[in-house]
Specification:
mainly beta; 11 strands
């Protein structure tokens, strides 16, 4: 089992920045590719960003490229999502997730392979 706890959400004005954190506990953190997803009201959960076990490979949804940065610290069992230039359409509950993968450099961009999910943290952007 892996437990994931997100933090750092809140209310922010458009153009501002936030840094989301996800603390992991349980099984060795570096066995998992990590991802961030979000779900806005009345919308499907969507992929935002993913990072490989090594931390060297990252992928982003087109809607967030250039504004969001995912990173991880395997020594601290944590993954982060830096959000810059926030827009009202970024308003959503943000979830971190962990996927057990063999390849050290693989990034997982779909929800199905993710085995563990956090409870989510709300991000609200006002215009």
């Amino acid at each position: 089992q892996v437990q994931l706890v997100e933090s750092g959400g809140g209310s922010v004005q458009a153009g501002g920045s936030l840094r989301l954190s996800c603390a992991a506990s349980g099984r060795p953190f570096n066995r998992y590719a990590m991802g961030w997803f979000r779900q806005a009201p009345e919308k499907e959960r969507e992929f935002v960003a993913g990072i490989s076990r090594s931390g060297t490979n990252t992928l982003y949804a087109d809607s967030v490229k250039g504004r969001f940065t995912i990173s991880r610290d395997n020594a601290k069992n944590a993954v982060y999502l830096q959000i810059d230039g926030v827009k009202p359409e970024d308003t959503a509950v943000y979830y971190c997730a962990a996927a057990s993968v063999d390849l050290y450099i693989k990034v997982v961009v779909t929800a199905t392979p993710y085995d563990y999910w956090g409870q989510g943290t709300q991000v609200t952007v006002s215009s």
